[in-house]
Amino acid sequence: MNGADTHDVIRVRGARENNLKNVDLDVPKRRLTVFTGVSGSGKSSLVFGTIAAESQRLINETYPTFVQQFMGELSRPDVDALENLSATIRVDQERMAANARSTVGTATDVHAMLRVLFSRLGQPHVGSSQAFSFNVPSISGAGAVTIATGAKKGQKQRRSFEITGGMCPECEGLGQVSDIDLDQLVDPSLSLNAGAILVPGYTADGWMVRVYSESGFVDADKPVGEFSEQERHDFLYKEQTKVRIANTNMTYEGLVPKVTKSMLQKDRDALQPHVRAFVDRAVTFVACPACGGTRLNEGARSSRIGDVNIADAAAMQITDLAAWVRTVDDPTVAPLIQGLRETLDAFVHIGLGYLSLDRASGTLSGGEAQRTKMIRHLGSSLSDVTYVFDEPTAGLHPHDIQRMNETLLQLRDKGNTVLVVEHKPEVIEIADHVVDLGPRAGRAGGSIQFEGDVAGLRASETLTGRFLDHRARLKPAVRAATGAMPIRGASQHNLRGVDVDVPTGVLTVVTGVAGSGKSSLIHGNLPAFDDVVVVDQTAIKGSRRSSPATYTGILDAVRAAFAKANGVKPALFSANSEGACAACKGLGVIVTQLGFQSTVETVCELCGGTGFSDDVLEYTLDGKNIADVLAMSVDEAAEFLVKGPAAAVLGRLRDVGLGYLTLGQSLNTLSGGERQRLKLAISMAKTGAVYVLDEPTTGLHLADVDTLLRLLDQLVDAGNTVVVIEHHQAVMAHADWIIDLGPGAGRDGGAIVFEGTPADLVAERVTLTGEHLARYVGV
């Protein structure tokens, strides 16, 4: 970029966020720049943690002064200078919030356009667009109002109002109703004193049960099944009532509403495991009988365009909906129909045509969620905006990547700056500019290894340059299966009565275009077999205090070693217990929560971010204090902790390619691929198990894929069965057996289109996967 107009580049000087080492960089504006490098090399720190974060901070500076007085100045990235930034739109792989009222349609505003369309053209006419919204209830009211101003001030007049919404009154727009299985709450053959209540925590001699047994409303020695009608009602459904138990005033409430409030209305994932298991047994969710699961009331469902109502339209596969919209022709709503057509076509073009608008947004994968967020921007007229993408090809079959590339180029050609963090050679090939970070991960990374065009990268001696044209080869011989796990009549989602035998004792790759039914087939059926270990990319349950050290159990061994070396209690070396800093309570940061703004975190000044008190940091083990150890990378810790159970776990973490992670790093900072590999490291101790991995190459550099293949071989050779849901051709080529689903996505998928060895798939070339794999291996 030497000699370029300074306003045509984003100037980065002295970036030191996380592992970056004083990075200086000029990123060309209105171009497509791909940032690549090994996992953990600093790509995300540079793009998301520095460039995008500083752009957002500058935007936040425009907030009113009184807000800044409450929340303080937002911390800026650790960088000397950032110049010529434009407004940044960040499109990442964070899953959409699992809001029960959020669907693909509401998340992209397509449902809003449909509501307007039906309010204008639907027959019979039932009202405005809100009459078709499952989030708006129908309400009415009337009463006297007092006029506050004008000539009639002080006079009372009767006023009435009416709002026509589309919400189903039975399920309140959720589409589902819950039903509590009373047999899971109570054993009718037992009395209360004999332990009839089966709810966790309700022991016969505990206070929770004594409220019922000593209330006087029921006979505590009579079997619950013999209660009179009044006793049964009082026991199960009675409203809150004050009672006196053992000279103490207490509140009595029927068991069903009490359990509903204390357990069923809480976030399921926040419940303790045994309580969560009880909730799963006790509650069943069924489609609302009043609306048939459509969420809409009878009025909204009665209005039709032709023979289609809005519930029918929302339930259509988007490819079908796009075709139906083309049949609607009315000049009074021509601009609306044109906008709807363009948005639906964008869904199809980006590879999401198999979805439906009524699909709950919380059920989308990370890749699907990212592409759904992109829909909002494809029709935007904005220019000179910086778009930042985090591996937009995640979850995409090679057939779909070409369409994603066209989308990225389309955004660039509108005059925008497009920054992409990506490893796939297909995306790197279309870049105007490439930035390669490394040379390795963690502390061994954080430096610019190459900056220039793709031809220059290919000629360079960087790790990425050397692996850009690297291709895995078909194995000369494949392993023989030791048995099979039969799946019969699989019909989850779009599967069409699939029968398939998943071989055991080998490496099986399940592939197919996005939306073809791979996850439905494997996750919906294999867990029913014994010893199946599912290792996916979902968030690891835990608090903000969780880290690789706590999740793997390494911290327990470290605390015990420190306690033994210093003759003190192990609890001193826990930031969650006695060793915690008094100011930040062991978090290492001071968290300020504001209802009207994002949470703000600042490093604790007392402990300097370690989370430990000064007294605890004086204790050492081989010259290191507890904060020093938690700041070590896995590779460094493996050299420090060479014996005991911690050494074995550290070895497995290195085997899965996580040697660069620090022991004390917060788990919520890990990518989906890193989370999956962390789970795999914990599970690897089992032998004779069935491992199910869901796209383990996500987030992996080209060089890291070879490491993953060696690990998969290691698992199989140890006597395990490995089933991988994957699109990466290198993993397909390395498989012993391939199950290919398709031929298309959604309604056009759900069938087995090939079963056999990779060599047979390439030789036959009868599927999209076979075509792409043949080109990949050069056959």
Mean pLDDT: 88
Q: What's the β-strand tally?
A: 27
User: How many DSSP H or I helices?
Assistant: 30
**Major beta sheet summary:** 6 strands, mixed
Q: What is the percent of helical residues?
A: 25-40%
How far the N terminus sits from the C terminus, by CA atoms, comes to: 39 Å
Structural class designation:
alpha/beta
Q: Overall 3D geometry?
A: globular
- Beta-strand level of the residues, as a percent range? 15-25%
Strand order of the largest sheet: 5-14-15-3-16-17
Question: Keyphrases for this structure?
Answer:
globular; six-stranded mixed β-sheet; alpha/beta; 34% helix; disordered N terminus; 779 residues
Account of the protein in words:
By secondary structure, the chain is α/β, with parallel strands linked by helices. It is built from 30 helices and 27 strands. The strands form nine sheets. Strands 5-14-15-3-16-17 form a six-stranded mixed beta sheet, with helices on both faces. A six-stranded mixed beta sheet has the order 21-24-25-20-26-27. The longest helix is centred in the N-terminal third of the chain and has 18 residues, at 43-60. It is globular, with a radius of gyration of 30 Å.
